[in-house]
## 1
Amino acid sequence: MSKKVGLDIGYSNVIAVYSGDSGNQESIVRPARATPLNALPRDSGLRAGEVIVEVDGQPWVAFAGPGRAGDRELHKDYTASDYYQALFKGALLNAACNSDVVDTLVTGLPVSQFHDKSYVRALKERMTGRHRISPKIEIDVRQVEVVPQPVGTLTDVYCTSEHAEVIEESVVLVIDPGFFSVDWIVFIQRELATKTSNSSLKAMSVLLETCAEEVALDFGGNPGTDKIEWALQEGKNSIMLFGRKVDLPEYLKRASDRVIPTVMREIKQELRKLENQVVDCVILGGGGASLYESYARQEFPSALILCSSDIIRSNAQGFWHIAHS
């Protein structure tokens, strides 16, 4: 059976969608944290979900749990880092499902990076070929396709919703609020409008920093972004600070009001290049999609607003569909 993988290595989560041994679609969602094995406390052992992989001959822990990895790498050369390689190999170890071959792997890049073809080419070269995962496991990735990140969400909604015909015949804006960047693309009757597709760095990392600042104004201490991010990843709506419960929705709303309108202005500025064409449909996906929905409805009151049925996995699921096309 041909092995296809949709892989979304973000700055917050690593999501892989693949066909399991039975042929059914399976997926993993893991924290995008990695660290050399020797950086962990001695004899601490592995926690659930963590895996050991080999990077340049050294053992790394991929998908490290809360507080177990140092600062994450938030920079444009992320995909060339050992940190990224550890996450990539950890995802392969899970998605290959006891196979030593992945026939097709599809992944995405922030739109601003996708515009740089040398960057795309370098990522494909790093991902294609035979990878030593551990002393006794090697996995061969035979073909890699790299697309702009929001194309995954667009494809996921197109393949799984009842609105395929609308998407085919419309001017569609896809917004993907990620941790490092907010990416958007415009499709006009299924053709990518490159000049109006771009990225903003006022992303979820900035929104979470602003949320932490808002908490500090009321509680006298900054909880830091990691504590808030971990809580949201675990589906929790509150954190503890100085022994007191802090309900996050109020502070996320305050932060959203400070950050998201600025991003929406950047998007609308780019949309001026559409030359009097209007946006018929807005599609939202990615971890911050739920926060952006009300702002999208306000900025595009006449457009059809669609969200992926699974905003966390939307890009990876779309990549998986592309791998099968």
## 2
Amino acid sequence: MFEVLRREWVYFWYYFTVQFQQVFPYWALGILIGSVISVFGKEKIHALLGALQGKRLGVLGVVPASLIGIASPLCMYGTIPIAASFSEKGVKDDWLAAFMMSSILLNPQLLIYSASLGTTVLLIRLVTCFLCGIAAGLLVRLFYRNKSFFNFSGFGESATRDTDPNPVLRLLKNIWRNIRATGIYFLIGIVLSALFQRYVPASVVEKLFGNNRGFGVLMAATIGVPLYACGGGTIPLIAGWLSSGMSLGSAAAFMITGPATKITNLGAMKIVLGMRRFILYIVFSIVFAWVCGMVVDIIW
């Protein structure tokens, strides 16, 4: 029994260290860059959305709004007060929908994490999240042109926690908050990936998420709902699945429904949408993820 346990520990430690060495540099770099943007660039990035208000962009405004959402370093509970303040200033709901949707799916920190999956996966994630924000904005403009989509009553722009007068200390405190917020999920993701690689045959992954692409993409979009807890924590899992035969389309679907239906994001969206529009939001996220996954598999 001792020899069996020792052998399994050796295998587990091998897979763990391989995954750790591959992903850790991107995790650390993502925290550093994300903190720098949060401390020194957050206000400037969000000011760009306010600056769009005076421009006659019409429907095209959803394009820069989606890009600004990706550049925003805030979580959804931090994004809602920002969006509420923009709504009070007259920014249109379709622009806010594009901004909030892309902000849910991606941020600079998660973008750096995703680079560990390779250039192709990084590009797929960036493009699909950008298009998802645009699609959300267009749908809100089409079906809620003359009525309000969001309910921001009771929300105001929250005060920043980065208030230390010393810029170096502000940055260090932000880095520490990011480490505390994501570190445990990062380690859990590597542990799960190591266990997965050791005990789940690659043929199973290929059968579920590789060969049968239509079903595999739909399944990946569906399991993104309960499995996604933290962006950094899922990167090792996605890396393991891709190496075991998961298609790029299935990975793309998972990377959309995961953050879109993350429990904290769902809680935030339920507050500002109400039940009917909240259900529409979930349906939209899953359908868009499935369509994107199918298109990605056709292209690649």
## 3
Amino acid sequence: MSTREKWLFGILAITLFVVAPLLFSDFRLNLMGKFLAFAILAIALDLIWGYTGILSLGHGVFFGLGAYAMGMYLKLEAAKGHLPDFMSWSGLTELPWFWKPFQYPGFAILMAVAIPMVLALVLGYLTFRNRIHGVYFSVMTQALALIFVILFVGQQPYTGGTNGITDFKTIFGFSLTEPAVKMSLYLVTAFSLALVYFLCRWLTNARLGRVLVAIRDGENRVRFSGYNPVVYKLFVFVISAGLAGLAGALFAPQVGIVSPALMGIVPSIEIAIWVAVGGRGTLIGAVIGSILVNGAKSLLSETFPDVWLYFLGILFVSVVLFPNGIMGLFAKLSTLQRKEVKAYGRNNPVFGKCHR
């Protein structure tokens, strides 16, 4: 981690853990908790896109599956042993067998991570083994998002259809409307973000990270050097999917609704925009980009309800002007500053004499 990234991470950590809980209202803190869940999702995409060169436009599927797994537990707890309301409205008379294990929170949390990982394992094995990459892989993951949206909308008796799963009341027996519970969910999400960040930082700084970057820059060279890119790409894709599922599980109790819209094509593209705005291949840039874009979306929609989309469009266009994102802009400014300092030192008579 560079000195600049350490400073940015330190400032961000102090803001999230100290300033935000003290200054924000319950509503704003809950909103920030959602943004932090998005930040975990952005790191997950940055791990495979920024470091490995695999652009997934279907990461919303993994996020949505994690959210649904957690939402099933929350809905069963809210039903208190009765059949969930949307199932009764759809004509079901008993709880489906695959819903029953989700009454246990440990199982739901485990499945929120495991189900996306298994799906990524199957999809990744079939695609990477056949050397499907680049835009073809992106289109395939985009089609996956469309398939899952249609599937979950069509299975209304089991998934809630278009409306999804709603009306969550408690988590682990505590009311979701209590300020202390909202604070706890926020802190758990913040700590999870920190753990995910350091995990991915450790992975990318290790030998694995160097191989991933080599695959991104020249997969054929890596293959000719004796490495099997399929194994590395499959591993990082599965890890990324699990992190996306974890983000969905943290998101569900804070937003209060889980619907197929989370898995759509547009949300998946937005994730890529968060990473691009912050700067892909930096991890900390993914965190900054996700918080900045979602914060701007919330603030601008409140302040300028009629024209806020234009402001957001300007922000997205700026990604083209600065292709390396915010972190790339910081790096460029830092380089220019160092050049100015060196030039000043050479032109300064006193400094020049001391230097000589």
